[in-house]
Amino acid sequence: MEPKQAWLENLNTTDEEKISILELHPQVFGLMPRIDVIHKNVRWQTFYGRMDLHQAASRAELPGGGRKPWPQKGLGRARHGSNRSPLFYNGGKSHGPRAPKSYFYMLPYDLRILGLTTTLSVKLAQDDLHIVESLDIPTDDQQYIEELVQTRMWGPSVLFVDEQDVMPENI
Asked: What is the tens place of the pLDDT at every residue in 148-167?
C-alpha cells in the first residue's frame, strides 16, 4: 500500500499557508469506505448515553379500584375484583415498561478503531482533513478563529484534535 500524503498547514494567518507535505500511514488513511462500520459507530455513540424514563402504571399505581365492581355471583357476568385490572379499559398495564431503561451497549474495540480510521480516510479523500503544525494562535480573540474557519472554507463545524489532553486557552 502506498502512503497517503497531506499538506501541513499553519494557523498564524487567516490565509491558507502550506508548509510541507506529510506522509500519512496507509493503514489509517488509506482504507476503503465502510459505511456499515461508520453507521454502527454513529449508532453506538447516539445510544451511549440514551435513557428512557417512560413508565406504564400498574394496577397498584392507579387511583380507585378499591371495591368489587359487581357481586361474585348472581349476575351471570365474569368475576372481577377491581376495575383497575389490566382486563378493563383504563386499567393498569400488566407488563408495561419500567423506567429507567438504558440503551447502553459496548461496541467491540476493533469496530471502534475501524470506524475511526475509516472516517479519517473518508475525510482525507473528501479534502476535509487539515493537519496543522501547532495549535498556537497569535491572538486570544475568538473572532480570529471564526475568520480563519470562514476564510479557509472549512465548513459549518470544525473539530480541533491535539495530542495533549490540555488544549491551548485561546482556542
From this structure: 889 988 888 888 888 888 88
pLDDT in tens, 127-151: 899 898 888 888 888 888 888 889 9
- Say if residue 89 is exposed, middle or buried (CB neighbours under 10 Å; 0-12, 13-18, 19+): exposed
Cβ atoms within 10 Å, residue 63: 7
Query: Are 88 and 128 within one domain?
Result: no
CATH number of the domain that 1 lies in?
A: 3.40.1370.10
Which cell numbers hold the place of 74?
Answer: 348472581
Cell numbers placing 123: 475525510
Among 102, 117, 138, residue at a domain's last position = 102
Q: What does pTM read for this prediction? A: 0.74
